[in-house]
Design goal:
CATH superfamily of the largest domain: Response regulator
CATH architecture of the largest domain: 3-Layer(aba) Sandwich
CATH topology of the largest domain: Rossmann fold
Radius of gyration: 21 Å
Number of helices: 14
CATH class of the largest domain: Alpha Beta
Largest sheet: 7 strands, mixed
Strand order of the largest sheet: 7-6-8-9-10-14-15
Length: 437
């Protein structure tokens, strides 16, 4: 069994494990000036408590359960390698029931339990925004009990833009970065002419529609938007009326930010009427049930963007994916969750403490090698820059798609890869920093 450390070393030189290149360091003087005395809990090797806040019940519970399993895998792996600062991680999980109010209650419980970091993101941008704003207020009022929010899934650009916070770090590419990768892909797709914007009616869905209209039509000025519809999040049981409207428009492509059952049911509705349409989606292709829905529909092409190619033969990611498959996450490996834990661990090592303020300062500008290659956490807005891979769910053919997913003969065909440096897009963030930083 390969350890994560071995896998990361292999990324430095594909096919051969070796020590990773030295990491960029923060100024020693700055760390010394900011360093308080180590807490007594740290001296006694007490565990470093971190929290998971996401949906573990309701119609989208399977998404939360998968992220929880990926996080547990990453933390267990870190603990197996000795933990951080001579201490082990302890995970506390909370079910937010896809509710902002329940998320805020969970945040307070996590703070009361002594958690230093909250990992979240799968419940959508409205929930994550509420958590970030609450954590920011709490940290301003309680400098001795601060907490960090590490967001591995919510991709609304406002979270690292107009509503950015010093206490929030995004480890998933945001909507604009993902749409840029997809827009670049469409340049060579001459079968795309008429686009319909069909999205969930909340902030991310509306942003996905707006960016799709802007970026895709800029990349392909010969295309045309032929319709737009928003629908309730997680409440539609039958998408037949929606897909009927899309087909009547003459669209050959649906730009949709749908995820979870909202994406699977949309694909099913199109398949039921034999509508062969392309979907341009952010990360729904890696969600449970999506590949199965495409295989059952037998029509439609789901093209999506993620940080990796599932079922690919990457020398570093493939062994990690094989290990994750033996956990509760099954075949749904989310490498960015592993990277999230790696970044937090490295920041704690550099800071020499788990104090959230000093960990945040060490995270800013952090550049390191990961299972995804080299990534960097922008200091200006706390947005991680990481590569994005565009792929399409397609039948196994033994060449471009070698392995099926979800027990089907459909897998993922590589379309294009956009390097992290090409996704260094402008940000509207005007960050308010704590005094003295």
């Amino acid at each position: 069994m390969h350890s994560t450390a071995t896998a990361l070393a292999a990324r430095a030189r594909p096919g051969k494990a070796r020590k990773a290149r030295p990491l960029a360091t923060l100024a020693a003087a700055a760390l010394i000036a900011l360093a308080p005395a180590a807490a007594s809990a740290q001296a006694t090797n007490a565990p470093i408590k971190v929290a998971f806040i996401d949906q573990l019940s309701g119609p989208l519970a399977n998404v939360g359960e998968i992220f929880q399993a990926n996080l547990k895998f990453a933390l267990d792996d870190a603990n197996a390698q000795g933990g951080v600062l001579g201490r082990k991680y302890e995970l506390i999980s909370y079910d937010n029931k896809l509710s902002a109010q329940d998320s805020l209650s969970a945040l307070q419980s996590a703070i009361d339990a002594g958690a230093k970091v909250v990992f979240t993101g799968g419940s959508g941008s409205s929930v994550v925004t509420a958590l970030v704003e609450a954590a920011t207020r709490h940290n301003e009022r309680n400098p001795d009990k601060r907490i960090l929010i590490v967001n591995y899934a919510s991709i609304d650009p406002d979270l690292t833009g107009a509503r950015c916070s010093f206490w929030h770090f995004a480890t998933e590419a945001n909507t604009a970065m993902k749409m840029r990768a997809l827009a670049d892909f469409t340049r060579e797709q001459k079968d795309i002419h008429k686009l319909y914007l069909l999205n969930q009616d909340y902030s991310h869905g509306r942003v996905w529609a707006a960016l799709g209209q802007q970026m895709i039509t800029n990349a392909r000025p010969d295309t045309k938007i032929v319709g737009e519809t928003l629908h309730p999040l997680g409440k539609v049981k039958d998408f037949a009326p929606y897909i009927g409207k899309v087909k009547a428009s003459g669209a050959d492509t649906v730009v949709t930010g749908n995820w979870g059952q909202d994406l699977s049911l949309l694909i099913k509705a199109a398949g039921d009427i034999g509508y062969d349409v392309r979907y341009l989606n952010h990360s729904g292709g890696g969600a449970p049930g999506t590949v199965l829905a495409v295989s059952q529909a037998r029509t439609g092409r789901l093209t999506w963007v993620s940080e990796w190619l599932p079922n690919g033969d990457d020398a570093v990611l493939a062994p990690l994916a094989a290990r994750v498959k033996q956990t509760a996450a099954g075949e749904y490996f989310a490498p960015r969750v592993l990277v999230s834990v790696q970044l937090v661990s490295e920041a704690m090592r550099r800071a020499g403490t788990d104090d959230p303020t000093r960990v945040a300062l060490a995270l800013e500008g952090l550049q390191t090698h990961t299972a995804l290659g080299e990534v960097v956490m922008r200091k200006s807005d706390h947005q991680l820059l990481l590569p994005q891979v565009v792929s399409t769910v397609a039948p196994v053919d033994g060449k471009t798609v070698k392995v099926g997913a979800e027990g089907t003969q459909y897998g993922f065909r590589l379309n294009s890869t956009t390097p992290a440096r090409a996704l260094d897009l402008p940000s509207a963030c005007r960050m308010k920093r704590p005094a003295g930083t």
